[in-house]
Design goal:
13% of the residues lie in helices and 34% in strands. It contains 2 helices and 5 strands. It comes from Nonomuraea maritima.
Length: 76
């Protein structure tokens, strides 16, 4: 699973490879703004406090099929 951070005004930070080296790519509205080699460089383009990490959760159906319908234990 790849890490990804989103911020305000359409900013996004994603890991990328450039010339065989890992960089943090700053995007705005899907367009590359900069490839940064450090978090300090990212901070020149976007306020780090505005970034939120995005977590991709696998769907339940993809793991084990549809969930079984059950009644609450309070109604037995």
């Amino acid at each position: 699973m790849e890490s990804r951070w989103i911020g305000v005004d359409g900013y996004e930070v994603v890991p990328a490879l450039r010339e065989g080296r890992q960089v943090l790519r700053v995007l705005r509205n899907g367009w590359a703004v900069a490839d940064c080699s450090s978090v300090d460089e990212v901070a020149r383009h976007v306020d780090l406090a505005d970034l939120c990490e995005v977590f991709e959760f696998p769907s339940r159906m993809a793991l084990d099929g549809p969930a079984e319908a059950r009644t609450s234990s309070h109604h037995r």
